[in-house]
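This entry is listed below:
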Amino acid sequence: MKADPTTLFAHRRVVRPAASGRPRSNLVRRLVPLGWGVASLACFIAAWELAWAAGWADPLLLPPPHIFLRNFASQAQYFIPTDVIGETSNATALKSLAMTIVATTLRVLSGLVLGFVCSVAMGVAIRYFRLFGNLTLPTITLLAPISPIAWLPVAIFLFGIGNAPAVFMVFISLFFVMTVSTISQIDNVSRTHLNVAAVMGATRAQTFRHVILPAILPSLFMVLRMNLFGAWMVVLVAEATGVGSGLGQVVMLARNTFNSSLSFFTMTLIGVTGFAFDVALRIVQRKVLFWVPNNGLGK
């Protein structure tokens, strides 16, 4: 005798899942770091303003934020290129300011992408091809300690004045460090994982794609993030001397004219842009490293 399905399930109690507080907890977890960031910035600004109010800081040398940010439109006039210096409207100034920020950001982005791709490829080639590694690794180790700033004359000799020297400087600031880091991370891949791949009959290409690359990428992204801030320092120096435009050039203008308000205004733009760049990099890292708990982000 067959049981009627309607009879079997007639008295079954329907249990509805309890409302989960997960979305709310995720929102709180994301808002807490933001709150601490705002509090940290507020404390810094308050201390600066207090030092000005107490007379400890000369407003001509160390103007507080409410002074150098108050005249936003007038400070933006300094970002207008010399070929359009006759146009001094606020719209032109703000457009020039935005173009300056975008130009510097693109130089940093181009150098970082080129440096990351080339250095990872170089590190893999050094470890996968013994003869190539024996010929190139000593030279890379020799060049790695040289400060990126020391490469500035070489960049100008090779590329002249323009965007290329700045991109090259960012590239150099990352290339050697990332190459050495790639080699180190490949050497530290778990032997157990490599042995399991070998037992399963994986080829060298399959082992690299499914074992080595997922193992080294989290650490390489962290190295990239740490070098992001160094890349911003380098590109500003390159712009000040070898490009003739960009945020670095405005910093040099502020120094030459002894304009402390413009100097701190530009430093604020650099800090905000660099912070946004770091946030964007962490978002990319979270998407790329989807298999890693917390995506190797830390805090």
